[in-house]
Amino acid sequence: MIDDLRAFLDASPSPFHAAANTADRLDAAGFTEVGSTESWRDLPESGYVRRDGAVIAWHTPPGAGADTPFRLAGAHTDSPCLRIKPSPDGSAVGWKQLAVEVYGGILNNTWLDRDLGVAGRLTTSDGEHVLVDVARPVARVPQLAVHLDRTVNAEGLKLDTQQHLHPVWGTGAGVRGEFAAWIAEQAGCTTPAFWELCLYDVQPAAVLGGDESLLASGRLDNLLSCWAATEALIAAQPADAIAVVVLNDHEEVGSASTTGAAGPFLEQVLERHVAARGGGRDELLRAYGASSCISADNAHAIHPNYQDRHDHAHGPIVNRGPAIKINSNQRYATSSATAALFRRACEAASVPHQTFVSRNNMPCGSTIGPITATRLGIDTVDVGVPQLSMHSARELCGTEDPVSLLHALRAAFEV
Fold first, then answer.
1. Closest by CA position to 326, among listed 337, 317, 318, 335
2. Which structural domain range is residue 165 located in?
3. DSSP string, 91-138
4. What's the whole-model pTM score?
5. 207 assigned to some structural domain
6. pLDDT > 90? residue 174
7. CATH code where residue 183 lies
8. Which one of 122, 124, 141, 199 is CB 3.0 to 4.6 Å from 128, fit for a cystine?
9. Both 9 and 52 in a single domain?
10. What is the pLDDT of residues 46-58, one digit of tens each?
11. Which is nearest to 236 in space by CA: 50, 61, 62?
């Protein structure tokens, strides 16, 4: 199963590729794609709808009524990275460079001296969308030599995101429009009018360790959860509730978009589900009241070199199961009731589980969980696989935990 996860990670260098690869997996499992502009009077039992870099899929049990509740699992398809600006061509002292914009909260230094490919979506002047993935070394952000920065090891690396993160991608003088023409050639399309393109480390996902117990890859946060939720849905046989997976985009930048958790995508899909079975507003709200959501987004494992940054009583260990993420200030949506719900799912699946709570003197991140709970009023628990190097260009987790999360999500769908 880890080899399958590695394949998904390597094939999904952008949110658009993650959505496309998820759709391919659903198609292969017999799910039917439904267009957002089509009539939904006769929904397939197993289906999905895709919008840009987001996917919502469902498996409806036989005999579901208008007020049948939903069992939701949510994750996000985007990861922090460097994105190509609209007018990227530049040059300096014999180097061709690309103008980039920082997307999300990257660890700046991890993007230095890596072989970077480029992937994402091109949009032509007639509105056609074309996916492109140049999965070979194209660009590199070179670090300043230690000889020219003698204090770097003692005082730390200081990077200005505007000045120091421009990748080089060739030699000579940059010509305006050169990158646009090059990427069009790579994609086999006309010169794009605009694009949404990510740079990414082309090193494949790898199992490592003398005992092969670790998984290193880019975009573990949060493609790991996307993979687990999708595979759990494909394997599940729900009985009393509609199993739903929602893979949102733009979580790393606040979720405020048409395809983000703060947008209307999920709400509209669930409302149309109820309407397709003859229900109205009352049935929808009754369904929400009996529904639950598992927001799956990775957690911070205790770092062996920085143990003082963790609450050891609530710090997850790799390969000891997914962590239930708790924050009294509602950075996570977990309540005692929803924590118990996920614990029951883990027990039903015979997988271990842990808890994660941040130190009081350390800031706590957030997820799509509180946003989804606030927007829909559905009881939600935040969970995640423990990992190190979160928001690095290359992250690290255990090989057992992703599979444990998959089994726990499947059990939750079948409760």
1. 335
2. 81-201
3. EETTEEEEEEEEESS--GGGGBT--EEEEEEEE-TTS-EEEEEEEEEE
4. 0.97
5. no
6. no
7. 2.30.250.10
8. 124
9. yes
10. 999 999 999 999 9
11. 61
